[in-house]
Design brief:
homotetramer; 5-stranded antiparallel sheet; alpha+beta
Chain lengths: ~140, ~140, ~140, ~140
């Protein structure tokens, strides 16, 4: 399975090149990731209440084609790698109804204890839920 | 009539105070304004094709109560003042399902010629449509 | 007296119109305000240690002429109004070496208790220092 | 040789976690890269006049330790790889006066023709200048 989230391009997202500022795709991807986790029943407040949170450990990004003002984008989320305390998400940005990848990123997030920021295993049910979203 | 647009608060929108960074409400309001104009049939591309665009002339903002991470907000758009070449929008930010105003702004936008950036009358049909959205 | 802070325009600050995104002038102004308070001996950490912080209560902004990529700007800070628990700053954005105002804002910040966010008198020495920066 | 640029952390750069929002390090790095190229005599305007510009092709980023509000950072720029039409920059973020890396990124930028966005060799003198900044 794969999860997707719609993102509209507003002026705030563009730069003087007339296209989406490359840094902002990472914001779009985080919005999709956040909604994905919410969809699985784990929003930030929920996780924090249970004493854990995700932090971004590392990422890579490839920029293939530009998105523009007013574009309606679709940002996908899939699981690339799953360990006890970390997940690597594969995320892609498309124009709605088009299969051409505009930008792509692998983002490794680690589960940490909110008190001391030390690595922590993620909740079992979250891990079980994430298993359904492995990328092919 | 009034137009409203939903905005979710993501980490990108917050600051070290744990709340939405006050500058970002203006981005939320622009998203709502953009969707409002799109709803009326005038997205950016459309207007630019006709040789005109809106630029922000001035604004004020009042901050009344903070929005927080994961909040689902509702951003309203109404017309405060309408002239041949400019509109003052009244925009308010609420938490979804709540009538308490978190932030409020009057934003004056002016219609300009895309070639020379000189003031220009806005399209008649846009003006007619905007008349239906006067704030009470 | 007046305090000024240099700000360079980078791609992150621009929008598809090829100019500085109007919302971002407020960030430039906050940088200048922050450096002004640091110059007076009150950075955020300092104030918070003493149990108080400034929050933005309201603002207005006028946009007069656009700044562009690579521009070297100068952002001024002066005091417009000074009360026990609040200050109105007058801030202006210029191109370095030019007296033409590109954007201008009056920004009211209120001193609050960091614990309960209730209004609080600002430190006496800060108030005394601010008096030297009244705008003419 | 290595080039460094100072960056101060303002409220706009932080998130609800009380630290610099991870996406924003990429903005800090671009500021340093831009100043580096300006230092070599090639600002954006200059390059565009000559019909070429740099676009970000891909990047990776590793987050090692958080920067906080009011921190004075130092962002370094070195050349990792140099080809006719592209450069990979190695960039690191430190706290001023400290050698501990907070964040690190390899960023590949490609030189393109401003007209058709097709790959282009970069100016010879720029390439010659970049050779002096190879990372060890």
């Amino acid at each position: 399975m794969e999860f997707s989230w719609p993102v509209r391009v507003y002026i705030e997202d563009t730069d003087a090149g007339g296209i989406v500022y490359y840094v902002n795709y990472l914001k779009f991807m985080e919005r999709a990731r956040t909604e994905f986790l919410r969809h699985l029943g784990h929003d930030h407040a929920d996780m924090i209440e249970q004493g854990s949170m995700f932090v971004v450990h590392s990422l890579d990004a490839k920029y293939k084609a530009p998105a523009r003002l007013d574009d309606q984008l679709r940002v996908s989320v899939a699981v690339q790698q799953l360990k006890a305390g970390s997940v690597v998400f594969l995320q892609r940005v498309f124009r709605q109804g088009d299969s051409k990848v505009l930008a792509e990123s692998n983002i490794k997030v680690a589960c940490v204890d909110t008190e001391n920021m030390k690595p922590q295993a993620m909740p079992e049910e979250m891990k079980a839920a994430l298993k359904n979203y492995f990328s092919d």
